[in-house]
Amino acid sequence: MDGKYLPRIADEKLKLMLASSGAVLIIGPKWCGKTRTAEQAAKSVLHMQNPDHAQEYRLLADTKPSKLLDGETPRLLDEWQQAPVLWNAVRFAVDKRRARGQFILTGSVVPPDTKDMHTGTGRISRMAMRTMSLYESGESTGGISLGDLFGGKTGMFGESGLTIAQIAHILTRGGWPEAVTEKNNAYALRMVYNYLDAVANLDISRVDGVERNPDRVSALMRSIARNISTQANTATLLRDLISNDDGLSDKTVNDYISALKKLYVLEDLPAWSAHMRSKRAIRTTAKRHFTDPSIATAALGADADKLLSDFNTFGYLFESLCIRDLRIYADALDGSVYHYRDQTGFEVDAIVQLRDARWAAIEIKMGAGEIESAAENLLKFRDSINTEKTPAPAFLMVLTATEYAFQLKNGVWVVPIGCLRY
């Protein structure tokens, strides 16, 4: 390993999962750092995509896959899905060895749907990785801990050093490890465009062997980017696309969306349901998000200057950035992130819920001028919860692009994204 590896939040979680299961499958988008993170924990490595040995490995997988598992443990099987038989080989080896921490599997696509593949339940655990959060990239001070907030800690104060211009740059650069460590901004942005081109022209057709039109892929990603952080359904996207491609159908759009999800390019935000005092119907449509907001900016052809001249678009993309970081921090606490919206249009941008049922409601607002109204919205939401059936929130937060982190007199926390950590 060279000295460029930046510690990841996933490092500790991987150690924990290896200590509690026979094998760990790390899933997530290509280029998010899965292999580098896995290499920190592995004692031996098999790179299935190594061009000098790829053909040999595939032949060996067809004849005696157990030989590919030989090596000091934990053994990393990188891009294992190139030989799907390795899944059952790993499961069998774990059963036979009766030991934990034997294998790490990494891949950038959803595992193939093969009826002969055992589920791996009880032997292979799954761990999601995403791009780098601002705390991992060193751009958040980490002065306010999500875990401390869930623990009821008070009296905390933080200060973010991020300017609006810096946040605009972070949005366009993304949390891709190689881009984060690149000092030349132009090179970092070009890396994101290269990623987008690879998805449209290569990856989306290779994911399941179905040939797809690169122009349609690019157009769809632009449409999703224009509708980022909204509940845009297939019909909405189709209306946006059909003016330039009347051969499109909702079936085609859904197929392309499914392929993007298999590549972990898209990660929609599901709706949260709670017991409310009123009988208002809750909308269950997911919000559209890319796994990293830079995919949206690249799809729109937007740089930092364009974002600074269009604060409406900037606001939606900032929400997507915050959702990415909240997902990373919540995952470290064994939690998940949702959104809430009812039939009247009342909504809360993010709900973080932990496995033990504790939850928090978060509004995402860029500027200080929106903090008071966002706090009032959160208090109104808290009061609408039927606490006989759903516990009261552990805390309420307005997540911002402002400078200071503190608690308002009404109990609502104001936290800049540049102060937050897990």
> Low-confidence stretches at least 5 residues in length (pLDDT < 50)?
none
Assign the structural class, choosing from mainly alpha, mainly beta, alpha/beta, alpha+beta, or little secondary structure: alpha/beta
Query: How many helices does DSSP assign?
Result: 15
**SSE succession:** HEHEHEHEEEHEHHHHHHHHHEEEHEEEE
Span of the ends, CA to CA: 26 Å
How much β-strand is present in the residues? 15-25%
Average of per-residue pLDDT values: 94
Rg from alpha-carbon coordinates: 22 Å
Shape: globular
Helix coverage percent = 25-40%
| Major sheet size, sense and barrel closure | 7 strands, mixed
Q: How would you characterize the overall build of this protein?
A:
The strands form three sheets. A seven-stranded mixed beta sheet has the order 7-12-13-11-10-9-8, sandwiched between helices. A five-stranded parallel beta sheet has the order 2-3-4-1-5, sandwiched between helices. It has a two-stranded parallel ribbon with strand order 6-14. The longest helix is centred in the middle third of the chain and has 22 residues, at 185-206. The protein is built from 15 helices and 14 strands. The model has no long low-confidence stretch (mean pLDDT 94). It folds into two domains: 10-128, 3-Layer(aba) Sandwich (Rossmann fold); 144-421, no CATH class. The protein is of the alpha/beta class.
